[in-house]
Design brief:
The protein has two domains: 1-96; 97-195, hypothetical protein PF0899 fold (2-Layer Sandwich), CATH 3.30.2320. Helix content is 73%, strand content 11%. The protein is built from six helices and four strands. Strand 3 and strand 4 form a beta hairpin. The longest helix is centred in the first third of the chain and has 93 residues, at 3-95. The termini are far apart.
């Protein structure tokens, strides 16, 4: 082998080794890139899962809160409906009292609402018709310390109860007015009896 052949062989050997080294380095770089890509993929996957879990937790919490709100509102609606039904039933029961019980209630309401001095009591035609003959005397016996009541023979357009008219003002003692005025107290009392 001549010197040129030795040099050529040396160049080829070195070149072959260099190519192998480049290929080996390239393969290592590919392996490193794949390893790095897998690690990055796993990191991103973990991050995506965590974010998805957080979003799911928020959606679950929002749905739970919404369901609780709907349930609470529905409960309040049902509770109010029950309260209104009980109060309406009470109103109807008073309207259907016997004549004796109804006029005893009217007498008590008059005593509770009468002001000092004389007044005129107005009722509807039905109540005037069924009123006991001694009712005016009975009322005045009950309220004599506070004032005097004269029952008008003229009917007024009210459902039930009565109106007391004084000089310059009147006191509305219809059952509707009394129920409306006491509605909050009625609801509180009925609610306490039913729901506590």
């Amino acid at each position: 082998m001549t010197g040129l052949d030795k040099i050529t062989e040396k160049i080829l050997t070195d070149s072959h080794k260099c190519c192998e080294k480049v290929l080996e380095d390239g393969a290592q770089q590919v392996r490193d890139i794949i390893t790095e890509a897998k690690a990055e993929g796993e990191r991103q996957f973990t991050q995506i899962i965590k974010e998805a879990e957080k979003k799911a937790e928020k959606k679950i919490a929002a749905a739970k809160s919404n369901a609780e709100s709907i349930t609470r509102n529905r409960y309040l609606e049902i509770r109010n409906a029950i309260l209104n039904d009980v109060i309406s039933a009470s109103y109807e029961k008073i309207e259907k009292l016997s004549d004796d019980d109804y006029f005893e209630l009217i007498k008590k309401l008059c005593y509770k609402n009468i002001q000092a001095g004389e007044c005129v009591m107005y009722m509807n035609g039905s109540d005037l018709f069924r009123m006991p003959a001694s009712f005016e005397d009975d009322i005045n016996s009950a309220v004599f310390e506070k004032g005097a009541v004269h029952i008008s023979k003229d009917a007024v357009d009210i459902e039930n109860g009565f109106i007391l008219k004084y000089d310059g003002f009147e006191v509305n003692c219809t059952l509707k007015a009394i129920f409306d005025e006491c509605m909050d107290d009625l609801k509180f009392t009925v609610s306490k009896a039913l729901f506590n």
